[in-house]
Amino acid sequence: MNLAKVLVADDHPLFRAAVLHALRDGVAVGQTLEVASASALTQALDEHPEVDLVLLDLSMPGARGFSSLVWLRGERPDIPVIIISSNDHPRVIRRAQQFGAVGFIPKSAPVEAIRNAVTAVMAGDTCFPPLAAERSERDALLAARLARLTPQQFRVLVCVADGLLNKQIAYELGLAENTVKVHVTAILKKLECNSRTQAALLVKALEPEGDPGLPDAGA
C-alpha cells in the first residue's frame, strides 16, 4: 500500500507537533510536511505537487478565514482538505463543508479523533462533527461566484481585500503592474462587481463568522 504524503498547515508549532504525533501511529502516512502561513502553503504545494491530503487551519498569517480553502479547491481540486480549527461553531463547520472541505477536526478533539478523521478521508469518506446549522444558500452563491476565478485571480482578489494598490499587488505576487490591472478588471467582471470595495466584501464574507450577506450583482 502506498503511504500518503500529508501537509499540515497551522501557525502553532505545538499543535502541528500534536497532529504529527497523532499521524505516526495507526494511520497510513509516509512523509509529512509543515507550513505556518498561506504563502508557505502555496510554496509547499508548488514544490510537492504529489501531496495527498492537507490539514488546514483557518487562522494563519496571510489567510482570510476560508480563503486558503477556496484557493486550494480552485488550485488543486484533487487534494482533499480537512479543516482544523478552534472555532467549532456549527455554522463554521457547515461553511467549511460548503466551501469544499471533506472533513473538520476541532482543535479540542482527542488524538484518536484526528487519526479517525484522517483515516476516513484517506479511504474516500468525509468526516464532520454532527451539523446543527442549516445549509446557507448565500454561502453556496459565494462559493459559486469565487469558483469563476482562476487561482491567480483569487490571489489578486485577496490582495485587493487587504487594501493593496495595483503596484503593491504586483510586487507581492511578482507580476507586472499591467498584468494586475488586467486581472482586477477580469475579477470585477466575473464577480459582477462594480468596484474593488464590492469585491473585497466577498473576501470579507469568507471570515468564519463573517457577514454572509453578499453585494448584489451589478449593484
TrEMBL record:
Ranges where the Response regulatory domain occurs: 5-122
Matches recorded under SMART domains: HTH_LUXR (SM00421), REC (SM00448)
Residues modified as 4-aspartylphosphate: 57
Domain (HTH luxR-type): residue spans on this chain: 142-207
Family annotation (CDD domains): LuxR_C_like (cd06170), REC_NarL-like (cd17535)
Keyword DNA-binding annotated: yes
Record's keyword terms, sorted: DNA-binding, Phosphoprotein
Membrane-spanning parts: none
InterPro entries associated with the record: CheY-like_superfamily, EvgA-like, NreC/VraR/RcsB-like_REC, Sig_transdc_resp-reg_C-effctor, Sig_transdc_resp-reg_receiver, Tscrpt_reg_LuxR_C
The protein's name: Response regulator transcription factor
Organism: Stenotrophomonas capsici
